[in-house]
């Protein structure tokens, strides 16, 4: 896959509070690499919601940023620019004037999307970046003018809604002096308004199978940032959640403060100090009324949904976009590193055969979770060659740990990275520094997983996919026999796997016997 065969696409989200740009390089295999993400607060909806008119100065701010982002995209040779506008634009009576100016002054053809379409795209963006397993989730995105709601699982949304509840809209309606402390009475009045607008939505959520909430807006992320500083005494990390109790503590801290004092609260984005309490009222009411006790934070949103939608449209087979999020992010990373996909898949298949066969014989106690991580580690074990072949196992480890793979927690990434690291040279041992970040279960799993990966790698030493099946058997003298099927000569694979006899015995405390047979070849 050459970079020359790829093309650059820009996605621009013109929101009520901010304009966002996502610039990606899309390959012919329909994987992508993020080149740039930009965000500028423009407050397009400021002063709009009382008379449904975009204000002149707000339009000027948005036009300036849109021109800058469009020029940026063109300077990177963007083949297409996909631009959408949401709540502030779709409700404005002078919408056409703004859209015409965007085309004339920024060269952008902007699609003003409905609230339901906005909710669909946000669902696509967020669900494609979080691992839900078999759970159903409530997805919440609080914008400046509207809040988009969806309920769905990993593959499909069940329903979508768009509520006229946004942080800027509620601030303009209920907080006439955001620079002053907010009274308890006004905060409660705001929450009562939210309940009245969303009463049927809350009923639907309570009747749904949603067992968790996922939030994807700047307001929710910033509230979680503040909570992490207060309750965890550190910066927010990727796997942190915001509990209802923490949120109420943050509100109790912020509400009596002036805007200037709010800007000094650790973790707060000063740009949001005037609208943060309206955002807090929305999410607090949603969690209480839907009886969910916490919300997970996603950094993805509408821009990512536009990208997922674009990839699905240009890929008729939807081979990549329809993959589960964890497999998709692994394949994205592999293709971004120009991995040898055929070899990676062969090694992964062989590793899983060895894993299943070894488990049947009681050689290990590992379960479905470790089996899944072994598959991903096998797919990515050689991506370090993208940096250099020498010490590529170390480069693979670094890339897996630092590529922000979607859908994985930090412990899973550490386990996958360590398994990939120990697929060559040094045997996995607990005193190695790479074991330090592992929990106790992973520390016991990595030696077995990396041993199986070593063998799988050797069983495709020629990169020719010669081995079609491999398994372990017990032999009478309490040893283990490795059996493999190869319709053609596989001397190189046999030679490679012989090197692991001692390592296998150290890992599984069993001697490995090897023999070679013709069609159903047994290695010796």
The total count of strands amounts to 14
Task: Kindly report the spatial arrangement of strands forming the biggest sheet.
Answer: 8-7-6-9-11-10
Q: Which ranges are low-confidence, i.e. pLDDT below 50, for 5 or more consecutive residues?
A: 520-524
Mean pLDDT across all amino acids:
91
Q: Name the beta content range.
A: 15-25%
Residues in helices, as a percent range: 40-55%
- The geometry reads as elongated
Main sheet summary: 6 strands, mixed
Count of DSSP-assigned helices = 19
Oligomeric nature of the chains: single chain
Cα distance, first to last residue?
A: 39 Å
Q: Measured on Cα atoms, how large is the radius of gyration?
A: 27 Å
Structural class: alpha/beta
Structure characteristics:
single chain; 524 residues; alpha/beta; 5-stranded mixed β-sheet; 19 helices
Short description:
It contains 19 helices and 14 strands.
How would you characterize the overall build of this protein?
Strand 12 (469-475) and strand 13 (479-485) form a beta hairpin. The strands form three sheets. Strands 8-7-6-9-11-10 form a six-stranded mixed beta sheet. A five-stranded mixed beta sheet has the order 3-2-1-4-5, sandwiched between helices. The chain has 19 helices and 14 strands. By secondary structure, it is α/β, with parallel strands linked by helices. It has helices spanning 56-75, 87-91, 95-106, 115-127, 167-174, 184-207, 218-232, 244-254, 259-262, 276-290, 302-314, 325-336, 341-360, 368-380, 392-402, 410-421, 440-458, 491-498, 501-508; strands spanning 7-14, 18-26, 32-41, 78-85, 110-112, 136-142, 147-152, 157-163, 210-215, 241-243, 294-297, 469-475, 479-485, 512-514. Helix 4 (115-127) crosses helix 11 and helix 7 packs across helix 10. Helices cover 46% and strands 17% of the residues.
């Amino acid at each position: 896959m050459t970079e020359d065969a790829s093309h650059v696409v820009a996605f621009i989200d013109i929101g009520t509070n901010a304009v966002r740009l996502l610039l990606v390089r899309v390959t012919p295999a329909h994987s992508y690499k993020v080149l740039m993400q930009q965000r500028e607060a423009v407050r397009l909806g400021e002063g709009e919601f009382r008379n449904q008119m975009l204000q002149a100065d707000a339009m000027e701010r948005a036009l300036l940023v849109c021109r800058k982002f469009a020029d940026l995209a063109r300077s990177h040779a963007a083949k297409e620019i996909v631009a959408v506008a949401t709540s502030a634009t779709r409700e404005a009576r002078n919408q056409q004037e703004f859209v015409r100016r965007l085309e004339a002054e920024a060269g952008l053809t902007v699609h003003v999307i409905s609230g339901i379409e906005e909710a669909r795209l946000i669902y696509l963006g967020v669900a494609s970046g979080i691992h839900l397993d078999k759970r159903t989730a409530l997805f919440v995105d609080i914008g400046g003018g509207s809040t988009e709601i969806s309920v769905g699982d990993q593959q499909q949304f069940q329903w979508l809604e768009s509520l006229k509840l946004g942080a800027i809209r509620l601030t303009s309606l209920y907080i006439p002096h955001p620079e002053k402390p907010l009274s308890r009475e006004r905060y409660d009045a705001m929450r009562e308004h939210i309940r009245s607008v969303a009463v049927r939505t809350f009923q639907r959520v309570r009747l749904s199978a949603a067992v968790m909430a996922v939030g994807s807006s700047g307001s929710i992320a910033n509230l979680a940032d503040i909570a992490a500083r207060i309750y965890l005494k550190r910066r927010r990390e990727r796997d942190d959640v915001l509990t209802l109790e923490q949120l109420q503590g943050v509100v109790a801290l912020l509400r009596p403060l002036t805007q200037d004092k709010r800007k000094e609260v650790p973790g707060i984005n000063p740009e949001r100090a005037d609208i943060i309490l309206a955002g807090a009222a929305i999410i607090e009411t949603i969690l209480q009324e839907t009886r969910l006790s916490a919300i997970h934070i996603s950094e993805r949103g509408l821009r990512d949904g536009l990208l997922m939608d674009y990839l699905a449209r240009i890929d008729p087979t939807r081979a990549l976009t329809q993959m589960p999020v964890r497999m998709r992010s692994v394949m994205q990373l592999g293709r971004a590193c120009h991995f040898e996909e055929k070899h990676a898949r062969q090694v992964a298949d062989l590793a899983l055969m060895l894993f299943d066969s070894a488990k049947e014989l009681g050689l290990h106690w590992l379960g479905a979770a470790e089996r899944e991580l072994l598959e991903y580690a096998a797919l990515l074990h050689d991506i370090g060659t993208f940096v250099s072949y020498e010490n590529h196992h170390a480069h693979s480890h670094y890339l897996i740990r630092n590529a922000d793979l979607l859908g994985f927690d930090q412990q899973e990434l550490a386990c996958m990275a360590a398994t990939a690291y120990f697929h060559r040279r040094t045997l996995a041992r607990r005193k190695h520094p790479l074991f330090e970040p592992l929990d106790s279960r992973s520390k016991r799993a990595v030696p077995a997983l990396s041993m199986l990966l070593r063998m799988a790698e050797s069983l495709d030493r020629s990169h020719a996919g010669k081995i079609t099946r491999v398994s372990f058997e017990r032999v009478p003298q309490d040893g283990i026999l490795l059996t493999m099927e190869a319709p053609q000569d596989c001397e190189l694979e046999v030679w490679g796997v012989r090197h692991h006899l001692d390592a296998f015995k150290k890992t599984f405390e069993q001697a490995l016997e090897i023999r070679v047979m013709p069609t159903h070849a047994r290695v010796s």
